[in-house]
Amino acid sequence: MITYTARDLAEQLGGSVTGDETLELHGVSPATDAREGEVTFAENESYLARAEASAAAAVIVARSVTASPKTLIRVGNVRVGFARALALFHPEPAFAPGIHPSAVVDPLAEVDPTAHVGPLCWLGPRARVGARSWLLGGVQVGEDCVIGEDCRVFANVTLYRSTRLGNRVRIHAGTVVGADGFGYVLDQGQHLKIPQVGTVTVEDDVEIGANTTIDRGALGTTVVGRGTKIDNLVQVGHNVVLGEHCILVSQVGIAGSCTVGSHSVLAGQVGVAGHLNLGERVTVAAKSGVMNHIGDGEMWMGIPARPVHEQRRVWVAIQRAPEILRRLKAIEDRLESFGGDPPGSSAEPG
User: Fold this and answer.
1) Which structural domain, as residue segments, surrounds residue 330?
2) Marked catalytic residue, from 116, 172, 238, 263
3) Same domain, 50 and 113
4) Is 313 exposed, middle or buried (0-12, 13-18, 19+ CB in 10 A)?
5) Are 175 and 230 in the same domain?
6) Same domain for 251 and 150
7) Ranges in the chain, pLDDT < 50
8) Are 230 and 251 in contact (CB under 8 A)?
9) Same structural domain, 179 and 236
10) What pLDDT sits at residue 319?
C-alpha cells in the first residue's frame, strides 16, 4: 500500500496543508466512495460540503479555501492536483527490460536494453525501440518503424512500416497506425487502388485511444502534433495534419488531406469532409458535420456545421415551424372562406 503524509502529498502537488500535516493518506476517491485514510477533492462549495460529510481524511481544494473540519491540501488547480494525486497513488506497472522468448525480432531491428518487448510481439527489419519503452503482448511493428523513448504501446497495436513515434507516446490496445489510406480512382468502371506510399509521424506526448485508426499518407506524411490526445474509435484519414495539443473525442472521423490547427477540439462523432482547413483553437460541437473551412478561434455546430450564432438561429426557426404552419393554415382557411380571393376583394366585375 502506498502511503503519503498530508505534508508529503502537498509538497508533491505544489500545495500547502491546513490541518494535520502528519495525517497518513493511502488512496484517492470521490467523496461518495471515500473511506478513512483517503483523500478526495472539491472544486466548489457543493463538492466541499459532500467531502466534509464523507469519511475522507483530507480534501484537495483551491487555495482560496482556508477553513474546514477536514485536513485541507490547498493547490492552485484542483483538477490538476487530483490528477497528480491519482498518479502518485496508482503508478504505472513496471515491466522488466528485455525481450520475451516468444517475440519475433528481426536481426536488423534495434531494441534498447532498457526497453520491454512482450510476448508474441513482432518487430520487422530496421525497426527501432527506444529507451524505457514497452510493447505489450501481440504488438506488431513494421519495417523501418521508429519508437522513441518512454513510449507505452499496449496489446495488439499494429504499426505499419515506416511509422514514427516520438517520445512518451501512449497507444492503447487494438489501434492501427499507418494502414493504407482510402484512395481509389474509377478506371473503366472499376475502382483502381491508388498506392498509399507515405508514412505517419506521431510527435512527442501524444496519447491515442483504443481501436483508433490513423492512415498513412498517399504521398507524404500523416502527422499527429505534439501533445494531441485522441480518444477511442477515432478515424484519421491519409495526409491529415493535426496540430499540437488538439483533442479528438470518440468516433470523430476526419477525411483525407485535412488540416486541424493547434489547440482545437473536435467533440464526439464529429465528421470532417476531405481537403478542409480548420484553424487554431477551433471547437466543433458533438455530432456536427463539417463541410467548410473554419477560421481561427471559431466555434461551429450542426449538420451541416455552421458558426454557433448562425446554427442557433436555425434551431430557433425550426422550433417555431409548427407555430408558423398553424398560422399559415389559418390564413389559408380565411382565404378559402372568401372563395379563394383575398379579404375585401370582389368576385364580380365592377
Assistant:
1) 318-350
2) 238
3) no
4) exposed
5) yes
6) yes
7) 350
8) no
9) yes
10) 87
Beta-sheet strands, E only, within 52-194: 58-62, 71-75, 98-99, 104-105, 110-111, 116-117, 122-123, 128-129, 134-135, 140-141, 146-147, 152-153, 158-159, 164-165, 170-171, 176-179, 184-187, 190-193
User: pLDDT tens-digit profile of 314-349?
Assistant: 888 888 888 888 988 888 888 888 865 555 555 555
Name the CA radius of gyration of the chain, rounded: 29
Q: What is the dihedral of CA 30, 35, 36, 37, to 10 degrees?
A: -50
CATH number at residue 191: 2.160.10.10
Cβ contacts of residue 294 below 8 Å, gap of 6+?
276, 277, 278, 279, 282, 284, 300, 305
Between the CA atoms of 246, 248, 254 and 260, what dihedral angle is there, to the nearest 10 degrees?
Answer: -10
Q: What is the CATH number of the domain that holds 65?
A: 3.40.1390.10
Q: Is 238 a catalytic residue?
A: yes
Structure pTM? 0.88
Residues in the chain: 350
Number of domains in the chain: 3
pLDDT of residue 242: 98
Nine cell digits for residue 94: 513496471
Instruction: Go through 144-166 and write b for each residue having 16 or more CB atoms within 10 A of its CB, e for each that does not.
Output: bbbbbbbbbbbbbbbbbbbbbbb
Looking at residue 349, its pLDDT comes to 53
Residues 204 and 244 in one domain: yes
Q: Which three cell numbers stand for residue 159?
A: 504499426
